[in-house]
Design goal:
Layout: E1 2-5, H1 11-24, E2 28-31, H2 44-57, E3 60-62, E4 71-74, E5 81-86, H3 93-100, E6 111-117, H4 127-140, E7 144-151, E8 160-167, E9 174-176, E10 182-192, H5 200-215, E11 220-228, E12 235-243, E13 247-253, H6 260-275, H7 283-288, H8 290-296, E14 298-302, H9 307-318, E15 324-326, E16 332-335
Parallel strand pairs: 1-2, 5-6, 9-14, 10-11
Antiparallel strand pairs: 2-4, 3-4, 6-8, 7-8, 10-12, 12-13, 14-16, 15-16
Helix pairs in contact: 1-2, 1-3, 1-9, 2-3, 5-6
Length: 336
Amino acid sequence: MRTIDGGDGGGQVLRSALSLAAVRGEAVRVENVRGNRPNPGLKHQHLAGLAVIAAVCDAEVSGDDLGSETVVFDPGDPDPGEYAVDVGTAGAVTLVFETLLPLSATLDAPISVTATGGTDVAWSPTLDYYRRVRLPLARRFGLHAAVEPARRGFYPEGGGEATLHVAPGAPRSCSLTERGDLDGVRVSSVASDDLADAEVAERQARAATAAVRAAVDVPVRERCVATVDARSTGSAVLVVLEYADSVAGFDALGEPGRPAEDVGESAAGDAVAFHEGPGVVDEYAADQLVLPLSLCGGRARLAAVTDHVETNVAVARAFGFDLSLEEHDAGAVLSG
């Protein structure tokens, strides 16, 4: 049984350890879960991810209680079928999906997981980012998955719903060291329907589009604006940069008292800053690519080496994967 120290990272250490254990068919013990957080131990979101991957793999589990700081996970073979999990809060459904996505590398038949919780919340990939950036990058490594959105969920009540469909993949090495020319930009903006009269979604999209056009000479190929039924008031905007050989995304969330124009300009500003730098994948995708690089091989030039990248690399190495991280003036390169 492998033992992982979760004290140097957040829930990502647990998610990655569970994913790799399931793919490798090995038992793992994660100690000091979220040990460096003000309130350590498992939260609802982590419990949801643990519960569903345990169900999929018919795993033996101990420590699956709210606040638990030690988890033991002993998986069996993944069982195809349909599953459902309710986070119970506005915890991110996309992070629950992250636990399951690597299973594509080892599945013999598809699985579908419907998760209820937050779809567009802080400290996690928004649903649009997951669909338009995260999954397209995973497909480059031969990991096959798609997301079917049903309902948006914002903080604090959540209540959003989406289904992740994971199919048997064909793992292959992928090089993401050159991004190529910028072919176009796509902007998507969403807001709860109680913000329709204030045109929040439209204003976010208009501001993001204008800010990108003012800085980068490239066509905006898509501008998607939507108002949606949701339990809590909220909004989100995403700017996607589509390069010849890569894709990067930058999102921002609305907040009470924050003008919609500021939200749109924030996402656009992050996109422009990335475009002017050396990165091939954005900093949020960087740590998410650690597992595909471990399982499938390849190289990726990162916009930044974050704490999340370093802790996720440490988890992969603990499972015996030979990852290297080299920092250069032209950006860091992560190799698997």
